[in-house]
Amino acid sequence: MRILLTGLPIKSHLLPVLAPLARAAREAGHEVAIATGAAVASDVERHGVPVVVLPDVLSPEEAGSRPELRPVREKLRQWRPEISGPLVVPVFDDAMAATFATNVIDARWRPDVIVRETNEYGGLLAAEVLGVPSAVVDIAPLITRLVPAFAERLDALRAKFGVPPGGSAAALTAGLLPESWYPPDSRPPGLRCHRLPEAPVAAGPRVLAAFGSNAHRFLGPSRLLSITVEALGALDVPAVVALGSDEAVASWRGPRPANVELAGFVPQRELLGGCDAFVTHAGFSGVREALSAGVPMVAVPLFADQPPNAARVHELGVGVHVETAGITAETLAAAVSRVLTESSFRSAAREFQRSIAELPPLEDVVTELARRGRAA
Questions:
Q1: Count of the separate structural domains present in the chain
Q2: Are residues 120 and 222 both part of a single domain?
Q3: DSSP symbol at 303
Q4: Alpha carbon of 131 to those of 117, 119, 128, 356: distances in Å?
Q5: pTM of the predicted model over 0.70
Q6: Quick one: 156 and 183 in the same domain?
Q7: Residue 61: in which H helix or E strand, if any?
Q8: Is residue 202 included in any domain, yes or no?
Q9: Region 171-198: what's the mean pLDDT?
Q10: Contacts of 197 (CB under 8 A, 6+ apart)
Q11: Tens digit of pLDDT for each residue in 56-89?
């Protein structure tokens, strides 16, 4: 079977899940490639996966340089989450989805099935045009709810490609957390939940704070990182704050409390295994990694699906949700202290960890796709 995985040219969308799934499919004897933009092709290839380079699919950094996006760049430069709260960003780009679909259709690599990550819709359109089944690896379960008139906009794109409205149901949706993560009204049909391979545990701090791989780019003018360092400095616990780049560490002019280590990038999955609390922007990958390690969270969302993820963390009792607007070192320190001292958070996170461990491995997605392909 020829399996084409599709993902936006963003490393965090590709490397943690799609790359290991592609390797598993290759090891099972299937012909596999990941279709994405050129900006991340070398990163994917270093993970041992062939890449179908889509020439017109741009990374956020490349797209952000376009002149028509100058007002967006200016808004980002002025954004201070501790004052204005989470940034509202478009999570569905009609033109990008159409471009992605066109590039996949025009590529010479012809799949028997297309498996896309949640944020990438061009693969879905391409599958419908090519008449092949599609599946979803759900790396952002709560994001579709944020798209205004999503079904109508998707049908408008279908019309441009000569595809009937409504489309066809996905062959399967591969969730990466137990079904209980999904609110009851957001559980897609065909949902099958899986677990990723366990990470090795490394010695680390009691508290880890990280705001994602884009922290240094998004939080340039913000005081949020300084507030985080100051808050953890007020607690008598070893802590690490990932600033997002070595350059950010070298140029740091904020507080340097003795109990807080500043780092650029950290092996987050490994360190979480030894932590008692995780201060996070509530990106789904970080939430998934914390729950897989049984670590409760202090969720401080910044944009996209992070606010609903943070709300879900609170609803499930696996952490607390702290609003960025009006955040201070005192309020953040109090939230971290609460997660460290109230055992209910740790118990809920550990229970979630146990339910994750009971899920079938992600590699079973390949087996299911092959089974359905033979039955078709």
A1: 2
A2: no
A3: B
A4: 19, 21, 5, 34
A5: yes
A6: yes
A7: helix 60-63
A8: no
A9: 92
A10: 20, 361, 362
A11: 999 988 876 767 667 766 777 788 999 999 988 8
